[in-house]
Amino acid sequence: MVEAERTRARIVRAAVDEASRVGLEGLTVGSLAQHLGMSKAGLIGPFGSRERLLQAALEQASTVFRAVVVEPLADMPPGRRRLERLITAWVNYLADCPFPGGCFVTAASSELDGRPGPLRDRLQSILTSWREQLTTEVAAAQAEMPGPHRPPKEVATTLSGLSMAANQEIQLLEDPSAATRARKAMRYAAGLDR
Known about the structure:
The protein is mostly helical. It has 9 helices and no strands. α7 packs across α8 and α8 packs antiparallel against α9. The radius of gyration is 18 Å and the shape is elongated. 29% of the residues are buried. The model has no long low-confidence stretch (mean pLDDT 94).
């Protein structure tokens, strides 16, 4: 049982890395099996289907994002300081991304936004949950700062858009100053540097 779990985890890690480069739909069972030195049947076996393997990769990518950006803040009370740390952790995640192709969720969002199906549905759920949490973080920070403030949901949308732009500048444009600019822009959008 332990060996089976290790094999499954190894397959998911490789799938996440590969999908971050080629996209979820670009990930093929054959190329992944070859990369891992496994048969196609051995690769799919722990999941039952390619679709379930892709879902596992999406879940793992979401787990990694939360572990790097959200979980380190768990002991901090909601408020301005926590939002500042969240923005710093988020930009650091983009700049020193654990995925070779950059932010997995950003890439998957672009890839799946117009493709109905279970992967899109799950990604939508993950992003909706993140946006709700981000909105709550912004509202808690605003409660400690003098107003007026933009609506927390609008700020959360702006922060998400800035993170997507930062990912593009870091990954595609290879701009070494992108992270610094993103951090400043996100802090300003959140009302932290006014």
